[in-house]
Amino acid sequence: MNLLQILLEASSSAGFAAIGAGIAAIGAGLGIGKIGTSALESIARQPESTGDIRANMIVAAALVEGVALFAVIVCLLVVLG
Predict the structure, then answer these.
(1) Residue 26 CB coordination number (10 Å)
(2) Which pLDDT belongs to residue 43?
(3) If 0-12 CB within 10 Å is exposed, 13-18 middle and 19+ buried, where does residue 56 land?
(4) Mean per-residue pLDDT, 20-24
(5) How far is CA 79 from CA 3, 9, 22, 51, 72, in A?
(6) What is the pLDDT of residue 1?
(7) 50-79: average pLDDT
(8) CA 30, CA 25: separation in Å to the nearest integer?
(9) Which among 5, 10, 22, 60 has most CB atoms closer than 10 A?
(10) What string of DSSP letters covers 10-78?
(11) Residue 38 and residue 65: Cα distance in Å, rounded?
C-alpha cells in the first residue's frame, strides 16, 4: 500500500485536505516571520556578522518553505486523487 492510498483512506472528504493546506501555508508564514525576526534582532546585536546571519536565515527560510510546499502538494494529491 503506497502513501497516496493511505492518505486517501485516512481522509473522509476533500475538506480536510483543504484545511491541511491552509494550516501548512499559515505555519510557513509564521515560521518564516519568526526566522526573519530573530535574524534582524541578531543583526542589531552583532552588526559585524550580518553576512553569516543573512546566509543562515535564507537557508532556514528555504527549508521551511520546502516543507510547506510538500504539505500543500500532498493535500492537492488527496483532493484530486
Answers:
(1) 11
(2) 93
(3) middle
(4) 77
(5) 14, 12, 13, 42, 10
(6) 57
(7) 87
(8) 9
(9) 60
(10) H-SSHHHHHHHHHHHHHHHHHHHHHHHHHHHHHHHH-GGGHHHHHHHHHHHHHHHHHHHHHHHHHHHHH
(11) 17
Determine the distance from the C-alpha atom of residue 80 to the mean position of all C-alpha atoms in its chain, rounded to a whole number.
21
What cell does 22 get? 491552509
HSE (side-chain half, CA atoms, 13 Å) at 6: 4
| Residues 68 and 25 sit within 8 Å (Cβ to Cβ) | yes
Q: Which three cell numbers stand for residue 61?
A: 527560510
pLDDT of residue 23: 80
Question: Contact at 8 Å (CB) between 81 and 4?
Answer: yes
**Which three cell numbers, joined as nine digits, stand for 75?**
493535500
Superfamily for domain range 12-75? F1F0 ATP synthase subunit C (1.20.20.10)
